[in-house]
Design brief:
Blueprint lengths: L3 E4 L5 E6 L5 E5 L14 E5 L5 E5 L7 H6 L3 H17 L1
Antiparallel strand pairs: 1-2, 1-5, 2-3, 4-5
Length: 91
């Protein structure tokens, strides 16, 4: 299940997926086969000044969110889990 799409300007798209152990990471989208074209209703489009963009829940796009998540700050982990559940339930 793709949890986020990130496309860096001038490079290919990346998909955020969960890996063993429950962490998530970004991987080259070319390593996957898309089986559904439906987008989760919680995703929003974010365009960056660099020309890159992301499709993800708004709370994941907040400055410092991923640092807090990978530092295992309880609030960030809860936000991640809540948004992940919404994405999974929409599939």
């Amino acid at each position: 299940m793709v949890l986020e799409v990130f496309a860096q300007y001038g490079k290919g798209a990346l998909f955020r997926v969960e890996v063993a152990g429950g962490d998530s990471a970004l991987f080259d989208s070319r390593a996957f086969v898309v089986t559904s074209h439906a987008l989760p209703p919680t995703w929003k489009y974010f365009q960056y000044e660099t020309g890159s963009f992301a499709l993800c829940p708004e709370s994941w796009n907040q400055l410092g969110f991923w640092d807090s998540y990978y530092d295992r700050e309880p609030h960030a982990v809860e936000v991640y889990e809540t948004e992940k559940r919404k994405i999974l339930s929409a599939s």
